[in-house]
Amino acid sequence: MKDRRDGAARIRPRTVVMSVVAGATMLAATALTAPAANAAASTLGAAAAQSGRYFGAATSSFMFSNTQHTTILNREFNSIVAENEMKWDATEPQQNVFNFTGADRLVAHARANGMSVRGHALVWHSQQPGWAQNMSGTALRNAMINHVTRVATHFRGQIHSWDVVNEAFADGGSGGRRDSNLQRTGNDWIEVAFRTAKAADPNAKLCYNDYNTDGINAKSTGIYNMVRDFKSRGVPIDCVGFQSHLGTTLASDYQANLQRFADLGVDVQITELDVAQGANQASIYERVTRACLAVARCNGITVWGVRDNDSWRRGENPLLFDANGNKKPAYTSVLNALNSVSGPNPTTPPPNPTTPPPNPTTPPPSGGGACSASVSLNSWSGGFVATVRVTAGNAAIRGWTVRITLPGGTTVTGTWNAQASGSSGTVNFSNVSYNGQLSAGGSTEFGFQGTGTGPSGTPTCTAT
Ligand code: XIL
């Protein structure tokens, strides 16, 4: 499948209707009670729940007034994701001005109907608000950190899994990153986003999500290598999302690809499934479902819409219900596949099997140099994110400690790329294993966020 996303251009104008569908609550009760294994369940959510998985759909709060859409949504699905309403352009239309109206309604609908919520997406090169599109460098980096912090904090405790970073890898054979304003802030932008999300919502599963990763190919291998690196360095990543916007064929190693990621110690999820209408539609849906069921760490499947006429791939009729709300053959093949799983829930995955590699054996540089540090601050009423750049002097250093004095009443709530000695008063931030060594004149960045007022004044830096 080639690139189907041309971002904001694809947003269809829709009328926002602010009425909530009444009486929807009882319909989702099915999804809450998992029937005994082997008893065929009659809805996708209940059938998936037999093996401890979810079955979700993308929707929008303004669709809740559409009775046919919402009746199917509440009957069949036990997870939802916002098709657009949690994206950067929707949630932060002006810098530091947040709008959660649609997203809050979606989360409330999920809660009222016993559904879990996937969060989509904290950081993405597409569907950025205009003000962010025009940013670069440290300003964009700080804006990204602020966005992740504020949005993930707003929904803290209510999101099952967050797509922290969406679509950061390039198509084609390079296996490398996609060029974007975010990528140009430095290759570490992805791990910074994950560390920031972890600090804001420590209990959500944090996912990397992408497309054209439906098999072992250069792009999925690039992502695989990043995940392996993150796991070895303790970057908080919990899951990988496979969008699975599919055409009329499916890679034969679809399941093997999911499994190799699971073997790295992350969960996997099918996050945006839709399949072009054609002779193979039902069988491709079935094979994707069976692949997820066969991988113990595959948590669930989300389809990217409810009815064909709700789909962003309008004309391709890629969903499980037709425009009249009728179940299609693909629906039946998915339900039967979900019901074919006998036995109990998948065994709880073993603890992360990937032991971090030993520290590099190359001896550190001789050290003995000096360092300096500078802070740039992104503040809002009641909180801040500080980004600190540490720069070595005329000689290499093998470690550093930056001493920062916080105003009274200020508390550090999260730190990335450094180890903090405390959370208030004077705090020493020391390098972690991978960023202590700096060559002469070299620099690195760490950051922290907090409540209260950010630090003022110049920090002191001591080289070790
Ligand atoms: C799509 C939505 O479905 C459209 O309504 C919008 O116009 C553009 O974005 N990958 C993603 C999703 O991660 O966010 C995209 O959603 C589809 C491709």
Task: Kindly list the characteristics that best describe this protein.
disordered N terminus; 8-stranded parallel beta barrel; elongated; 464 residues; alpha/beta; binds (3S,4R)-3-hydroxy-2-oxopiperidin-4-yl beta-D-xylopyranoside; 22% strand
Structure description:
This protein is 26% helix and 22% strand. α3 links the parallel β1 and β2. With 464 residues, it is an alpha/beta fold. Bound molecules: (3S,4R)-3-hydroxy-2-oxopiperidin-4-yl beta-D-xylopyranoside.
**What is the count of helical runs?**
12
Bound molecules: (3S,4R)-3-hydroxy-2-oxopiperidin-4-yl beta-D-xylopyranoside
- Element string (H = helix, E = strand): HHEHEHHEHHEHEHEEHEHEHEEEEEEEE
Strand content: 15-25%
Quick summary of this structure?
With 464 residues, the protein is of the alpha/beta class. It contains twelve helices and 17 strands.
Chart the SSEs and their pairings.
Layout: H1 29-32, H2 44-49, E1 54-59, H3 67-76, E2 79-82, H4 88-91, H5 101-112, E3 116-124, H6 130-133, H7 137-154, E4 161-166, H8 189-200, E5 205-210, H9 218-233, E6 239-242, E7 245-246, H10 254-262, E8 267-275, H11 281-294, E9 298-303, H12 329-339, E10 371-380, E11 383-392, E12 400-405, E13 411-416, E14 419-420, E15 426-430, E16 443-451, E17 460-463
Parallel strand pairs: 1-2, 1-9, 2-3, 3-4, 4-5, 5-6, 6-8, 7-8, 8-9
Antiparallel strand pairs: 10-11, 11-16, 12-15, 12-17, 13-16, 14-15
Helix pairs in contact: 7-8, 10-11, 11-12
